[in-house]
Amino acid sequence: MKIDILTLFxxxxxxxxxxxxxxxxxxxNLIEINTINIRDYxxxxxxxxxxxxxxxxxxxxxxxxxxxECFDHxxxxxxxxxxxxxxxxxxxxxxxxxxxxxxxxxxxxVLVCGHYEGIDERVRENLITDEISIGDYVLTGGxxxxxxxxxxxxxxxxxxxxxxxxAEEDSFYHGLLEYPHYTKPREYRGLAxxxxxxSGHHENIxxxxxxxxxxxxxxxxxxxxxxxxxSKEDKKVLRELLELLQGLEL
Length: 250
Ligand code: 4GX
Fold this sequence. Notes:
Belongs to the RNA methyltransferase TrmD family. By secondary structure, this protein is α/β, with parallel strands linked by helices. It is built from 8 helices and 10 strands.
């Protein structure tokens, strides 16, 4: 997948995209990430990219010209047509794991990062296909949201994660919160690892983990259970957990 990121601050992306799994994915040519400095497409003498809002008010708005010019160039490089063009903004569609999986199937993504009060509405109306919000809080720019989207989308591209990791993600645990993880040593400062994980009994371990996932989801994010395919066994466990929790809470 090719990802073009339009930003006024390309330097912000250097470290995050040169570490860990994203770095490896780039080295393996599974993803190609390009940052494009919007300022390079400003045609005026001082390379201005923002101006005061028509109608008055505080703050600055990103001008249409550099972005339209930048898009002309991008389109030229991609045979006249672009695929998904995503703007990061608080007014966008909530970003979810499902959204990440959908974007991971695209060949080419363009991410537009706004700064200041935002971007001239004509950009949104004429160049943007998707608007994404990473959550209900206000950031100083779209750069961090773009990094979040690139990270979540990249790990859904086949080969980016180890094969075992991806298989597990998709088959069994999707939609529920993760069960607790432990590693060596089996006792640390008197803190023990649950015996069942040391038992070697794979079916019991699988059931324990599933139960832990269900318990955590029930306690912390019960609304997530609506979107999960639950087996007969899951439902039995949930009824049991509910009864247990009610007993404790009353
Ligand atoms: N999830 N922001 C974008 C400037 C802006 C405003 C409007 C385009 C249109 C955010 C979020 C977020 C702050 C990024 C405002 N650009 N983006 N920026 N939460 O808060 O995505």
